[in-house]
Amino acid sequence: MLTAFTAGLLLITVSELGDKTFFIGVILAMKYSRKLVLIGVGGALAAMTILSVIFGRFVSFLPEIYLKYAEILLFLGFGIKLLYEASKMPDSGSEIEVINEAKEAVYKADLQRKSKSPLAIFIEAFTLTFIAEWGDRTQIATIALAARYNPVGVAAGAVLGHIICTAIAVIGGKLIAGRISERQLTFTGGCLFLIFGILAAIRV
User: Fold this and answer.
1) CA triple 70-72-74, angle to 5 deg
2) Which DSSP state fits 93?
3) Nearest to 95 by CA among 38, 170, 173
4) CA angle 94, 191, 198 (to 5 degrees)
5) How many CB atoms lie within 10 A of CB 65?
6) In 3D, which of 71, 70, 33, 49 has the Cα closest to residue 151?
């Protein structure tokens, strides 16, 4: 339980800071009620986590040997990919592309939204975040963790990690957005994925 909780918490906290969903929260919080944005973004990430954990439990019914090697390949593959991406990033300003993607997503959603009611803002925050997170590496990693570890621990750790990142984005995102080093975060995330992959290989 504790191992699953720690794995979920570390994986999400490191991977989500500076991610597209993080900047979506930052941008929305600068325009609308922080409370609504926090609930909308946090709710979407929590819902995605629970769905991922449920899917992970279905995956856990596959033969154990397949799960073991799939977990190793998944984490090592993500780790190597992230380290390679980090090596290609400039020392500064590498988060500009992610910020621009988040701005474009929010801009398009604003054009489609016909109301400025609290419910409409909540739906926009929830929908934008849910769509951005779907298929993300953290979702796939959460599925992998839930297939091999205690699902309640993984869900609790991952949800807490998302809440921490969302709170940082909504409350202090404007202040730290320009100080986030996407290269450093990507490098740290890559190392974390490699560690999970090595630990999985040791357990085989």
Assistant:
1) 65
2) -
3) 173
4) 155
5) 9
6) 49
How far is residue 90 CA from its own chain's centroid? 22
Closest CA to 78 of 155, 158, 14, 23: 14
| Residue 147 CB partners (closer than 8 Å, separation 6+) | 56, 57, 59, 60, 62, 67, 71
In this structure, what token pair is assigned to residue 138? 């953290």
Summary mean pLDDT of the chain:
84
Q: How far is CA 11 from CA 105, 123, 191, 203, in A?
A: 25, 27, 11, 19
Tell me which residues of the chain have a pLDDT lower than 50: none
Half-sphere exposure of 161 (CA within 13 A, CB side): 25
Q: Which residue has the tokens 């190392």?
A: 191
Residues 6+ apart with CB under 8 A from 1: 150, 152, 153
What predicted TM-score, i.e. pTM, was given to this entire model? 0.81
So what's the pLDDT on residue 180?
63
Provide the 3-class DSSP secondary structure of residue 98. helix
At residue 54, the pLDDT reads 94
Using alpha carbons, select from 88, 119, 74, 102 the residue that is nearest to residue 187. Answer: 88
